[in-house]
Amino acid sequence: MSGILEVSGEWLALREPEDADARSRDLALAAAAMLPEGPIVVHDLGSGTGSMMRWLAPLLPGPQTWILHDWNADLIERATDGVRPLDRHNAAISVYPQTGNLANLRATDLAGASLVTASALLDVLTSRDISAIVDACVGARCPALLALSVTGDVRLTPRDGLDAAVEHAFNAHQLREADGRRQLGRYGAPIARGLFSQAGWHVRPGTTVWRLDHRRPRLLSEWFYGWVDAAVEQDPGLRAEAKRYRQLRTSQIERGELAAQVSHVDLLAWPR
Fold first, then answer.
1. H/E element holding 260?
2. What's the rounded mean pLDDT across residues 7-34?
3. Domain that includes residue 173, residue range
4. ∠ CA 134-139-141 to the nearest 5 degrees?
5. pLDDT score recorded for residue 62
6. Residue 220 near residue 260, CB atoms below 8 Å
7. Which of 35, 167, 211 is nearest to 114 (CA)?
8. Is the pTM of this model over 0.70?
9. In Å, how far are 53, 72, 96, 272 from 16, measured between CA atoms?
10. pLDDT average, residue stretch 228-254
């Protein structure tokens, strides 16, 4: 995954509780039902600090071995050194790191895998990355549970006249080319779904939503400022209005009056 913009461990920790609330439990349980009783091996792509593992492992049978794939060795180290979850039988899991570029993933890398997972990943990948992941899963005939890909749809309450322009600019910003890579943004999940379907696989989507409000004000604030900053970087013409917009939304956050729904989609793909 080398080349993907740096994501801090602090941001991953801040968003982990909301990620856990948002992911589709129905799709996770459907994936669990596909797995054998007995040793299973899960490959988690773009694992970061291991939030997907901590959320999903307690829903799956065991014994479990997780192989965490990420380009950032520091984040993987935090995942492997931290408290490890138990499987649904309350047994300890095993965890192994694997650093590397997902564009180079092959079916042989997934040999013996029972399940492939990812969370908040598809929207920051390129078409080459996603093609490699789909081809590897199809070649290994390994089901894939791909969670929390942004759709680009955001709803703020109360609404403001600048909401739509910021949303549009942010979505365009996600598609920019950086360091020779063009990320897919909100098109990542539809492209992955289409590639699995072209391979003759079943694909089941699930709508998932971040619901940000006074319960997690710091996450709401960090998400909002990042959202607006990216929009202004993409469209400098928003800069003057954005000053008023930030001040308004900041005061609403401080009073517990602002809420945001950030739409995502989860995908479960499996062979026929």
1. strand 259-270
2. 93
3. 9-270
4. 90
5. 84
6. yes
7. 35
8. yes
9. 11, 18, 21, 33
10. 97
What pLDDT sits at residue 6? 55
Residue 23 structure tokens: 């992911």
Instruction: List beta partners, residue 151.
Output: none
From residue 81, alpha-carbon distances to 10, 78, 84, 262 in Å are 16, 5, 8, 31
Question: Does 2 map to a domain?
Answer: no
Question: Could you give the residue ranges of the DSSP H alpha helices within the chain?
Answer: 9-22, 25-33, 51-56, 73-81, 127-140, 163-174, 188-198, 217-234, 239-254
Please tell me what DSSP assigns to residue 267. E
Residue at 266: amino acid letter:
D
Q: Using one digit for the tens of pLDDT, what is the confidence trace for 97-127?
A: 998 888 899 999 999 999 999 999 999 999 9
Q: Which of 20-29, 33-42, 152-161 has the lowest mean pLDDT?
A: 33-42
Residue 4 belongs to some domain of the structure: no
The span from the CA of 87 to the CA of 64, in Å, is: 7
The answer as to whether 3 is a domain residue is: no
pLDDT digits (tens, 9 = 90+) for 191-211: 999 999 999 999 999 999 999
- Report the number of distinct structural domains present in the chain: 1
Residue 90 domain flag:
yes
Closest listed residue to residue 114, CA positions, set 152, 148, 140, 88: 140
The amino acid present at 81, given as its one-letter code, is D
Query: Based on the number of CB atoms within 10 Å of its own CB, is 84 exposed (0-12), middle (13-18) or buried (19 or more)?
Result: middle
Please give the Cα distance from 65 to 75 (Å, whole number). 18
45, 102 Cβ separation under 8 angstroms? yes
What's the burial of 159, exposed, middle or buried (CB within 10 Å: 0-12/13-18/19+)?
Answer: exposed
In this structure, what token pair is assigned to residue 2?
A: 């080398």
pLDDT of residue 2 exceeding 70: no
CATH number, position 14: 3.40.50.150
